Amino acid sequence: MKNIPEFPEISPVTIEMRPVLHPLFQALSPEISELSFANLYLFRNVHNYAATSLEGGLLAITGNDFGTPFFMLPFGLPGDALLKRLFQSFGQMKAAAAEQARELQGRGYEISEDRDNFDYLYSREELSKLSGRKFHRKKNLVNAFVGKYRFEGRPLLAEYMDDALFVNEEWKKGSRVPGDYEAAKEALQNMDSLQLCGGIYYVEGKPAAFTLGEELNPSTFVIHFEKGVGDYKGLLQFVNQSFAAILPDKYALINREQDLGDEGLRQAKESYKPVGFVRKFRARMPG
User: Fold this and answer.
1) Confidence of residue 54 (pLDDT cuts 50, 70, 90)
2) Per-residue pLDDT tens for 80-106?
3) Does residue 101 contact residue 92 with C-beta atoms inside 8 Å?
């Protein structure tokens, strides 16, 4: 497969792999947020993503988190002998969907839920309207923002890129940890080639927030980045609602990715009342 070596050789994920990987992920119509070329490419340095081709036209994505190697099989499981070699080489499999986890369990592998990496799913319609008692606090914050500040939202086009990069830089200055700053910067700089889209928001004439994502599957839009700066009460709640309101109706769901086990992030994501989760599993060899 072009630009992707055969196992056991691996090659770091590069932009040159996009013509091969992007159509495969699109055809997969994934629910799992990791399974898009943009996500793999933008977080390739964080997770040390690499790719290798397998028998039967399959592919494996490998990685390493804090010294712990892993692999993912987004396009299906290979035969028993090759699957065993992958486990022997990388130790564990990540991002297995429920059906794949059942198949792995049937082959004798140990399965465990990966709750920290569950994707949060929301109703686009609910987020766009914030109706009812369960969204009362969110709607109040949006109303407070709208009533207090002069604001404007625009599609995140190339002409506004410098303003979005400014927001990302200001966010970095105010953050205790680097977080996804580098990935967000690269996403903004490569929006067109990665087919990302988003919005940018100005408050009192100054760039204050942006949101950026992509179509994950025909009914789901995934938000990869959402950042706001400045002491504007209700800003991010407004951004969340207003962007959901302008997404096409075909997107019944918005995937806002995982909480990574961060308690504060978990509480924030749960406060928006998810309608479900994309459950993910890890697999290991028995014993």
Assistant:
1) very high
2) 999 999 999 999 999 999 999 999 999
3) no
Write down how long the chain is: 287
**CA angle 205-224-18, nearest 5°?**
120
φ and ψ of 276, to 5 deg? 175, 180
Query: Do residues 62 and 128 share a domain?
Result: no
Which residue from 174, 173, 183 is spatially nearest to 213, judged by alpha carbons? Answer: 183
177-190 b/e with 16+ CB inside 10 Å = b?
Answer: eeebbebbbbbbee
What CATH number does residue 59 fall under?
3.40.630.30
Q: Which residues contact 285 (CB under 8 A, 6 or more apart)?
A: 84, 87, 88, 109, 110
Domain tally, the chain = 2
- Work out the angle between the directed axes of helices 161-173 and 181-189 (0-180°, nearest 10): 170
| Whether the Cβ atoms of residue 21 and residue 37 lie closer than 8 Å to each other | yes
Q: Of 103, 118, 133, which one is at a domain's C-terminal end?
A: 118
User: How high does pLDDT run on average in the chain?
Assistant: 97
| pLDDT tops 90 at residue 1 | no
Range of the domain at 108: 11-118
| Alpha helices, H only, the chain | 18-28, 37-42, 44-47, 80-90, 98-106, 124-129, 136-148, 161-173, 181-189, 191-194, 235-246, 263-270
Q: Identify the CA nearest to 31 among candidates 258, 245, 282.
A: 258
The two most distant CA atoms of the chain are separated, in Å, by 64
In a domain, 90, yes or no: yes
d(CA 187, CA 246): 21
Same domain, 136 and 53: no
Amino acid 23: pLDDT: 96
Residue 39, number of CB atoms within 10 A of its CB: 24
- The residue with tokens 């075909």 is 250
